[in-house]
Amino acid sequence: PVRLTGRLLPGAYALSGAVSSQFLGGLLYALSVLDGPSTLAVKDRLESEPYVRMTLSALQQSGVEIAESRTDQGLPLWTIAGRGVLTPPEDVQVEGDWSNAAFWLCAGALTQNPEGIAVEGLSLTSLQGDRAVVDILSRLGAQVESSSEGPVGTVRVKPPKNGAALRGQTIDARQIPDLVPILAVAAGAAEGETRFTHAERLRIKESDRLQSTAQLLHLLGVPHEELPDGLVVHGIGSARKFSGGRISSFKDHRIVMAAAVAGASGGAPIVIDGAEDAAKSYPYFFEDLERLKGSAAPADLKTRN
Questions:
Q1: Which residues does the annotation mark as catalytic?
Q2: Which of 81, 163, 248, 259 is the most exposed place for a label (fewest CB within 10 A)?
Q3: From CA 24, how far away is CA 34, in angstroms rounded?
Q4: Is this model's pTM higher than 0.70 or not?
């Protein structure tokens, strides 16, 4: 049990940025509604920084004055002018979710349909860190196309040209840990080695995601190595298909969705125990997957806010 007394007061605070951006984001919100100025310094290092930047942007849209400087270690130090209340704008356009869109974009790189999969409603200038999936898939060799009219756009991902295979790459997961399970599936279908680095924080997600992703790769018949702070995936190439079988959800929504995309990519069937855990972040994931099933035309999905 945790028992708290008293109330949070304005003051000088310091938190590690090496564990989770959510601690920093939560405290930034709390300090913004106090009556008086506070400071928040980042210790150690700042990982998942794009999520902190999203929080800062949302607070500033709500009238919070936040100034940024640097600590002696070169890490962010924010000064928050607490006003006691947030004053959000009357209308806010909520962006499409790049983290969930990444599953479909990776599926586009794996599909047998040469027209791939398109996802609508994404901001091409978003602060969301998982927007990096576009550049990563391009480096892996997938065909990536994007178009935009106004603040949102459409991204289409197709398999590599002329039946070529994806190519293994080194992927730094420090700022994009949520992409690792589905990118590991894509890497499993690539030729050559893909190395995920700076991924130690995946061990404290909904599951130990390095371990659960490794177990998914094992199910798929993909040789791999689980490291203390990463994964090495030895892709089987496009000439072979994923194997299948039965796997637990590990109570982790991203493992469920990664396993489902792998099972739908043309290999052997996969049974996911606890598939309902996808609902944590994407309640209609399997509805959208069903919409794509057997599509002979280019598949389009619209992100739902």
A1: 178
A2: 163
A3: 16
A4: yes
